[in-house]
Specification:
InterPro entries: Glyco_trans_2-like (IPR001173), Nucleotide-diphossugar_trans (IPR029044). This protein is α/β, with parallel strands linked by helices. It is built from 14 helices and 12 strands. A hairpin with a 5-residue loop joins β10 and β11.
Length: 372
């Protein structure tokens, strides 16, 4: 596989783009990649047995731009498609893009500059949501990428929460040397791989620029819109389990604590919202997972979750489904407003949910922290 030195004025960036049932989105994605201010690109589109015209669309681009090549495979899922693309793509720098998203024009140049300036093994940048034609910033991602920096993971363990494949550049030598690949046959394959990348990296570059527009689709086809299924939840626990094992093997108490309290729980509230309509099998799987990860001394009462969802998490751990339903239904009724609060004699505050007897709940699960 040809490799070009990072000392060249125009290093080659290899971009892997899996494509499945995205014929309507793929042109915008490829136009954004090919329109990068950094022109030296090798773009490999992996047609993952797509049932629509995605493969044909990709071939049209390959016919008119030599920087694009297409690989056709039987459908094997996102992780397998990315791994297949890695077997074909050229370059000393790697990037990934999902075929329904958009890469801003200067994204690769901004990250490449930081990669070369710092000698980092990978560089990560900010992400915005793309809702129709509206670009919306993501508060927690902006916070993680607030400054231009070069760090190792123990200096900024919160970066473990940036688990996206596609807002980054990776040195190919680092990727191969760390033995990185994407899990196959499981949803949420980004987190285990990115966790391994962060803990193996000697240095991680950070840039504040928005380097990726993540499209929010409302057609129900996005993997992240299918959380009410048992298969989805089972895959989520699998990827969390693998990621936590990687962090524990790294051997830093600080990184492990941040990961358990601030990273692993980050998306649980999305699952908690499904509790009222979920079936019994899904509920029992939720309970078992919460107990596995937070059933010891690092309960979800210590987590970064907001008060309503810390309380919900504790109720899940106790297998108190009717009470968890009451909390979530109250959250829905309040439409974004916080749960009612009661001021305690010591000046602290707790949340108040109609029908939930606070005497039956761990006070830590009801507590409202200063500033919340």
């Amino acid at each position: 596989m040809p490799r070009l030195s990072l000392r060249r004025s125009e290093p080659l960036i290899g971009v892997v783009v899996p494509a499945y049932d995205v014929a309507g989105y793929l042109p915008a994605c490829l136009d954004s990649i090919l329109g990068q201010s950094h022109r030296a690109l090798d773009v490999v589109v992996v047609d993952d047995g797509s049932p629509d015209e995605s493969g044909a669309v990709a071939e049209e681009y390959a016919a008119r731009d030599p920087r694009v090549r297409v690989v056709h495979i039987e459908n094997r899922g996102l992780g397998a498609a990315r791994n297949e693309g890695l077997r074909h793509v050229r370059g000393d720098v790697l990037a990934f893009a999902d075929s329904d998203d958009v890469v801003p024009p200067g994204a690769y140049a901004a990250m490449l500059t930081q990669l070369r300036r710092t000698g980092a093994d990978l560089v990560t940048g900010d992400v915005a949501r793309l809702v129709g034609d509206d670009v919306q910033r993501i508060r927690w991602m902006r916070r993680l990428h607030a400054d231009r920096a070069s760090v190792f993971i123990e200096q900024r363990p919160e970066l473990l929460g940036d688990v996206f494949a596609w807002n980054k550049l990776y040195r190919r030598e680092f990727w191969d040397g760390a033995g990185l690949s994407w899990p196959e046959g499981v949803r949420y394959e980004d987190q285990p791989t990115l966790t391994r990348a962060y803990v193996h990296a000697r240095l991680i570059g950070v840039v504040p620029e928005v380097v990726y527009h993540w499209r929010v689709r409302d057609d129900g086809t996005s993997i992240t819109q299918q959380r009410a299924s048992t298969a989805d939840l089972r895959d989520r626990w699998t990827t969390k389990r693998s990621s936590l094992a990687t962090v524990r093997d790294f051997g830093s108490d600080k990184v492990t604590r941040v990961f358990v309290d601030r990273v692993l729980p980050g998306d649980l509230w999305r699952y908690f919202l499904q509790i009222p309509q979920a079936d019994d099998e899904w509920w029992q799987l939720l309970v078992s997972g919460v107990r596995e990860f937070w059933g010891g001394e690092r309960s979800l009462t210590h987590s970064i979750l907001p008060p309503a969802h810390r309380l919900t998490g504790w109720l899940v751990e106790q297998d108190r489904r009717s009470d968890a339903v009451a909390v979530i239904e109250q959250v829905a009724a309040l439409a974004g407003r916080p749960l009612p609060r009661v001021t305690l004699p010591d000046g602290s505050a707790r949340v108040d949910v109609p029908g939930l007897d606070p005497a039956t709940v761990d006070p830590a699960a009801l507590l409202v922290r200063p500033g919340e």
